Amino acid sequence: MKKFVFGTLLFLFAFASVQAQSRGTYDNGQKKYEGTVSKGKKVGEWVFFHDNGQKQREGVYSNGIPSGDWKEYYRNGQMKSEGRYVSSGGKAEKHGTWTTYHKKGSRKTEGDYRAGKPVGTWFEYNTLGIEIKKIQR
Asked: What is the mean pLDDT of residues 107-135?
């Protein structure tokens, strides 16, 4: 029985050291971030917060690198930007359509990235969401 208990505890300790929840707080007690760390690298869903408690950004990490869909927010809670990251050569690159927003929520810019570089036609919008400019990249 002692061997079973010791083996179980050893297994749990080994698993806990491989994957653990990570949370941080600001000096004012508000959450700063929360997510999972595995083998010293961020993995899975992560959420970062402004010091006022509003979300700052959220997305997924794969082996310590941002991957997939990410969203970023202003301090007032409005969406700031959204888009997708892909891993290339051990680093994250923007890929696909990215959209940025004005502080009150209307679209600001929209366009595509390929291999981390803006490509194609990009659109700019005023604070009312009306297209004001097209830029060819």
From this structure: 97
